[in-house]
Amino acid sequence: MRNPVPSKKQRILGNTPYWLLLLVVIGVVALWRMTSDDSYFAILVAITKGIGTTAWVAVAAFAFSMLLGLGMGLMRLSRFRVLREAATFYVELIRGVPMLVILYYIAFVGAPGLVDSFNWLLSPLIKAGVMAKISVRELNFTWRAIIALTIGYSAFIAEIVRAGIESVPRGQREAARSSGLTRWQCMRHVILPQALRNVLPALGNDFVAMIKDSALVSALGVQDITQLGKVYSSSTFKFFETYNVVAYLYLIMTITLSLLVRQLERKRIR
Description:
This protein has a single domain, classed as MetI-like (MetI-like fold), CATH 1.10.3720. It is built from twelve helices and no strands. The protein has helices spanning about 10-15, 20-35, 40-45, 50-75, 80-95, 100-120, 125, 140-165, 170-180, 185-215, 225-235, 240-270. It is flat. By secondary structure, the protein is mainly alpha-helical. Helix content is about 80%, strand content about 0%. Helix 10 runs antiparallel to helix 12.
């Protein structure tokens, strides 16, 4: 007797790992508990206002760090020694400093220095009355946090990009050059597309880490999920309930992104 062909629903359930099913069940029960309890619901309403700030900081910082990291990664492989040494110095220096220290340094040292430098460069226009002098207060702490995360993560992304480019077989480069492409055209049209495809899972993992590290911006008073949770818990003394909600929101975001990264890995392998 022939075995019945399993339905699509049965195949999906059969392929779903038990840990994910357990997390889904726990997540649904936790959400039901939060929405049915007035205390938890009030906390959920107060803290979810920070989701937009968390998402904005993470997405903006990751986009800028991708651009800066790509540039540094290409410099690390440059044929010019000065560019290689400068990029290596940047990468090793930034990777050796904790992210929280970078955040404080950029917020309270780098940002004022940047504004002062900008005012100095444009001093002739300022003296002529063409434009007004810029105050450091105009660079808000959200942007200072984005700049700090950009600098911190660009060093790690530079190494990912470098490893991705080196993973492309040398024959690809030689074939492109022999067909008449210049060095830049070879890198742009042949090497980089393959390298970025190879490092997509690693970049996805870095974005998940960026979501988690965005909680550090609460140290500057930026109104993200963690900061709103800190303010709410200190005013109501409901620390247990508040940080349960904070952890729940971060888990929803990071686990969802992690599953997307795994799906990308499966497609790349196929």
